[in-house]
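Researcher: Structure prediction, please.
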Amino acid sequence: PFTTATQVFYGLPAASPVRLSVYDVTGRLVDRIVDGTQSAGMHVARWDASAQPSGVYFFRLEAGSDVRLQRAILSK
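Model: Predicted structure follows.
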């Protein structure tokens, strides 16, 4: 759970195109945090959710052919 902002940490084994998107519980795209090629190594992306209502959100990370999904709870 987080209140107004959160950070997403991820690592890339090689340089690749990366897209990190945030969806609400209905599947609607809320925000796109990262969209571009990134180098290998550890990365951090910050999402400011102060304008969003409390609820469940999903972070979808696409890096090359790998796709990961993580749930987060915004509680104001």
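Model: The mean pLDDT is 96.
Researcher: Thanks, that helps.
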